[in-house]
TrEMBL record:
SUPFAM superfamilies noted in UniProt: Cytochrome P450
Annotated organism of origin: Selaginella moellendorffii (Spikemoss)
The protein's name in its UniProt record: Uncharacterized protein CYP794A1
Residues at which heme binds: C442
Alphabetically ordered keywords of this record: Heme, Iron, Metal-binding, Monooxygenase, Oxidoreductase
Gene symbol of the encoding locus: CYP794A1
Lineage of source species: Eukaryota, Viridiplantae, Streptophyta, Embryophyta, Tracheophyta
Length: 512
């Protein structure tokens, strides 16, 4: 009787929702109670792929009902512009996802909080004090150190192994760059007998678990009444407690006077800001932990997975790889390392990165937006409390915008209508949106963009690349776009690696 009563309650609730008819975007046929959730099971596709297929039938804007969640999906640059610019303020909030609630202090983090005055102040602090170009320049040496470690580690691996998975090395690079910048910690490459090795292994596991929970979602997101039945909720709480303990330990270490760290890191800057006399930001302890958590989970796997996809494309297109290497050789030569200051003189490399983002945006549906007030897109009503997805996967493959959209062709960005396209969310025509745009664009976009450019330039400068196994472009399940089958590579040095990089202090191989 209890189960029957719950089903009856849900059915009546759905009728109330359906009874409030407005001029909504077109929608596929739905089922009672579950709405359109069955499409995700029957199609066998990832959400962004399913949404692309539905857009081909219903147009660039359509609506869905996923249990209790009302959803609108936009799939071309015109509708994306209306979400991210025209109706930017009305759609500046985030949906209250149960899985996120228990992982991020009840929606108090930068990524998933409502668009409040406090959030605006925090984003201003991040943009001006933490992630500004001037502050990021202070950490150029960190990126240089870790790229030197990567180059030497790859040289050792290529001597000992015929082929190996590139993902482990790219993850090691991005984790080390992010953790050194954030809290002065370096975990990848530490030998097993090092005191920080065990800490690093535990840290990586809890971050990986947090990311998996965040991208997997929860049945309670669609049916909040079923929260008590969803095992992912308890898992999210457990992972959050573990991550809290780790970050709290970092916080305590940074509060020790004269702790002997040679370089100020982001956590030092956050703690300094929390004690400032003006009201720009008053960071509580939990908010400080949230800053760290957002930067760690948002900046590690996204950069490494994008680099893996792009390197796979280059190996599959050797003529593009050769052109990129020729440009790098012209700018840098063979007698020194690539410098980050060289990147602006490498338009072809920048075009390769843009083409990588077009086809392999790290988060194909971006972080969802949420209507805090009613608005209109393409003449359709978007009711308050609607979740809105921007499908950058479909936008990057739109044949109305891109010639031969499924081909990897960086030269499309060197001339013609796409020459002025950029990737940091300032697009006039909204062609590329890997970091979103507008009020809720990714605050770490400049950091992520610098990491992928500097890393790819260094890898192409130092090595020739071949596949170690057949490359499969299948995607793994989840909100983040990751290769289902890790890329196996056979790099061959094209420089005197040991001579050029011998001064680097980090030479230990990966042990994680």
């Amino acid at each position: 009787m209890g189960a029957f009563g719950l089903l009856l309650y849900l059915r009546n609730k759905m009728k109330k929702i359906q009874g409030n008819k407005q001029q909504l975007p077109p929608s596929p046929q739905s089922l009672p109670i579950i709405g359109h959730l069955h499409h995700f099971v029957s199609s066998g596709k990832e959400p962004h792929q399913l949404f692309q297929s539905l857009a081909a039938v219903h147009g660039p804007i359509f609506s869905l009902r996923l249990g209790y969640m009302n959803v609108v999906v936009v799939s071309d640059r015109s509708t994306a512009k209306q979400v991210l610019k025209t109706n930017d303020l009305a759609l500046a909030s985030r949906p209250k996802l149960i899985s996120v609630k228990h992982a991020l202090y009840n929606f108090q983090d930068v990524v998933f909080s409502d668009y409040t005055k406090e959030l605006r102040e925090i984003r201003k602090f991040l943009a001006m004090e933490l992630l500004s170009a001037k502050k990021l320049d202070m950490f150029t040496n960190v990126k240089e150190d870790e790229l030197s470690w990567l180059v030497l580690t790859l040289a050792n691996a290529s001597e000992q192994l015929n082929t190996f998975k590139m993902r482990d090395y790219l993850v090691g690079l991005t984790y080390n760059v992010i953790t050194r910048m954030l809290m002065g910690k370096r975990y990848y490459g530490a030998p097993p007998d090092d005191k920080e090795y065990e800490e690093g292994v535990a840290f990586k596991k809890v971050v990986d678990d947090a990311i998996k929970i965040g991208v997997a979602g929860s049945i309670a997101d669609f049916f909040p009444q079923l929260e008590f039945l969803d095992w992912k909720v308890s898992q999210a709480k457990k992972v959050q407690r573990e991550l809290d303990k780790f970050l709290q330990r970092m916080l305590d270490e940074h509060r020790v006077p004269n702790r002997g760290n040679s370089q100020e890191d982001f956590l030092d800057m956050i703690l300094e800001a929390s004690f400032m006399s003006d009201d720009r930001i008053k960071a509580t302890e939990s908010m400080t932990l949230l800053h760290l958590q957002d930067l760690i989970t948002g900046g590690t796997d996204s950069s490494s997975s994008f680099l893996e996809w792009t390197l796979a494309e280059l190996i599959m297109h050797p003529q593009v790889l050769a052109k990129a290497q020729e440009e790098i050789d012209t700018v840098v030569g063979h007698g020194r390392k690539v410098k980050e200051s060289d990147i602006p003189r490498m338009p072809y490399l920048q075009a390769v990165i843009k083409e990588g983002f077009r086809l392999h945006s790290p988060v194909p549906l971006l972080v969802p937006h949420y209507a805090n007030q009613e608005c209109s897109i393409n003449g359709y009503t978007i009711p308050c409390n609607t979740t809105v997805f921007v499908n950058t996967y479909a936008m990057g493959r739109d044949p109305k915008v891109w010639d031969n959209p499924l081909e990897f062709d960086p030269e499309r960005f060197l001339s013609g209508p796409h020459k002025e396209v950029e990737v940091l969310g300032q697009n006039v025509n909204f062609e590329l949106l890997p970091f979103g745009s507008g009020r809720r664009s990714c605050p770490g976009s400049a950091l992520g963009n610098s990491i992928v450019h500097f890393t790819l330039a260094t890898l192409l400068h130092c090595y020739d690349w071949k596949a170690g196994d057949k490359i499969d472009f299948a995607e793994s399940s989840g909100a983040a776009k990751i290769m289902k089958f890790p890329l196996c590579v056979q790099p061959t040095p094209r420089l005197q690696i040991q001579d050029m990089y011998v001064t680097n202090q980090y030479t230990n191989p990966i042990h994680m």
